[in-house]
Amino acid sequence: MADGTVQVxxxxxxxxxxxxxxxxxxxxxLPGGATITPxxxxxxxxxxxxxxxxxxxxxxxxxxxxGASFTSGIEIGEQGLKGGSDDYQTVTFQVSGVSLSxxxxxxxxxxxxxxxxxxxxxxxxxxxxxxxxxxxxxxxxGDGGSEPEEPVVEEPNVGEPEGPVAEEPGGxxxxxxxxxxxxxxxxxxxxxxxxxxxxxxxxKDG
Length: 206
Fold this sequence. Notes:
Layout (H helix, E strand, L loop, with lengths): L5 E6 L8 E9 L6 E7 L2 E5 L23 E5 L13 E7 L10 E10 L7 E8 L4 E2 L14 E2 L11 E2 L16 H23 L1
Antiparallel strand pairs: 1-6, 2-5, 2-7, 3-6, 4-5, 7-8, 8-11, 9-10
């Protein structure tokens, strides 16, 4: 964005099985002093590892046992679907005190609960890891308000996850990452969207 703030949108994207999941946590590696501010989508109920800490992330939103470590994480909503009132497929938040280069080649992690067929049983859980693009190029607008060149955004590298596992009572289990639904694809779209949004904003200001 014009003030240097990066806006991130994470979406749950159903894959070939049509499975969906309830977004519970998004984890990143951010520099010290970064601040996360909720914008829209599922409510952020806890933030850790940033200057805007509030609350502690619950066990159903963490990525313990995934083999990855993160400096920052957010929790979305609460555990349990609550009759559909706490079933979130998207979240948008802003990160200040960073630049786009802080996200390049970074490992991201997403935790989902209640994964499964939207019209059937959703008794699975997911811990998914992925890597952001290693090249993001944003061209400043030219003189006279001309349209800037399209930014180049490489596809993220998402490793081959293992099969889904059933949720354990209380949501405190350590399930293995599953490919359905693919939150990393949603993350890639959101990342491209934030670059495009920044480009449009710069064009408007130019």
